[in-house]
Amino acid sequence: MKKVIFLYLILILFSCKKEKQVFQVHNVNIEQNSANKNHLKSTTEFLSIAYFHIFETAIPTPRLSDLSVLHSSFGDKKLIEQMTIKNFLNDDGIQISSIDRSSIITKTTFVRETYKKLYNRIPEEYELWFILNMIEKDADLTAEIIYFSLMTADEYRYY
């Protein structure tokens, strides 16, 4: 009986061998596209660039002057920026492309071109998926709403 137990112990001891596994980890530098944008646009830059992105023409000097004074005199800067963008987008002369919902390629092209135009970068995969998903699920979602949401985001205020 002792021999049998001894034999089982020897079998158990030598049958289980722990194999060494070596994993190689490569350093990956991950940063957001917006992480490099750390210069806040001045009021004049913000208004001029926003106007150009929506109307594809330079803002008239008297209008820029009036909006700059309005912007400077208002306490809540984020609110006045949102109201300015909303006012621009409600104008009849806007020059932004509408969303062509005929295929995924045209929707993807719209989102990529909008990101390039407004943020000067291509959208990350999650951003692209998120906006395409919103376009798919909501037939009432317009290009103006997408422009408003992207132009009122914090990233738009920086370059």
Q: Could you walk me through the main structural features you see in this protein, from its secondary elements to its overall organization?
A:
With 159 residues, this protein is mainly alpha-helical. The protein has helices spanning 2-15, 43-55, 61-73, 77-89, 104-119, 125-137, 143-151. α3 packs antiparallel against α4 (77-89) and α4 (77-89) packs antiparallel against α7 (143-151). The longest helix is centred in the last third of the chain and has 16 residues, at 104-119. The mean pLDDT is 88.
In short:
The protein is mainly α and 159 residues long. The protein is 57% helix and 0% strand.
Distance between the termini: 82 Å
- Sequence of secondary-structure elements: HHHHHHH
Rg value: 28 Å
How many beta strands in the DSSP annotation?
0
Instruction: Please give the share of residues in helix.
Output: 55-70%
Shape estimate: elongated
Q: In percent terms, what proportion of residues is strand? A: under 5%
Averaged pLDDT = 88
Biggest beta-sheet profile: none
Low-confidence stretches: none
* Number of alpha- plus pi-helical segments: 7
Structure class: mainly alpha
Please tag this protein with its features.
mainly alpha; 159 residues
